[in-house]
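Record type: monomer structure entry
Structure origin: computed from sequence
Chain ID: A
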Amino acid sequence: MDNNVFKGKWNQLKGEAKKQWGKLTDDDLDVIDGEKDKLVGKLQERYGHSKDEAEKEYQSWGRSYRD
């Protein structure tokens, strides 16, 4: 998903992100604020993923929300 689209749709996507990654807290989602790099970092932190693994998870999830 394009970073600008992700940022613009973040309020709509927060609930979907929480469903996908239940270990993310509401505070995490507020901190992420639609920034892909922050989401990838939180996935690394909460799930112990490498950066590449977290990036792949984001890409896979983001494909579901393309325009």
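Annotation 1: The helical segments are 3-8, 10-20, 26-32, 36-47, 51-63.
Annotation 2: The first helix runs from residue 3 to 8.
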